[in-house]
Amino acid sequence: MAKKTSKYLKPFKNIFVLILVVFAVWMFFFDANSWLIHNELNSDIDELEAEKNFYKNEIIKDRKAIKELSTEEGVEKLAREKYYMKKENEEIFIIEYQDSIAKKDKNEQ
């Protein structure tokens, strides 16, 4: 009987090709420095860079707010607008626009 060997398995009879394939599979999947780990680390780096940019923008906003609040006028403006504080003998009128009023559900009416 004649042995039938597949044309796809013929290169694997060579020991050097077999060792090369085993080495490539080992490096790609199982090694501590595998492609999968590098891919995961690269995605972590991208997430951290995005987070770093977010915090840089927040620092810029906070510095701007600190600079505004370093003056007496800035503190007074914040107290009046956000906390509705007033000076003595002064009245405050709060104007609400139709867009800013919370809508009620039909069931609550």
Short description:
It is built from three helices and no strands. By secondary structure, the protein is mostly helical.
DSSP helix count?
3
Report on the biggest sheet: none
- The proportion of residues forming helix, as a percent range, comes to 55-70%
The beta-strand count equals 0
Mean pLDDT: 84
Low-confidence stretches: none
- What's the end-to-end separation, in Å? 92 Å
**What percent of residues are in strands?**
under 5%
The Rg value, from CA coordinates, equals: 34 Å
What gross morphology would you assign? rod-shaped
List SSEs in N-to-C order: HHH
Can you tag this structure with a few keywords?
mainly alpha, 0% strand, rod-shaped, 109 residues
Structural notes for this entry:
- The model has no long low-confidence stretch (mean pLDDT 84).
- This protein is mainly alpha-helical and 109 residues long.
- Helix content is 58%, strand content 0%.
- It has three helices and no strands.
- The longest helix has 35 residues.
- It is rod-shaped.
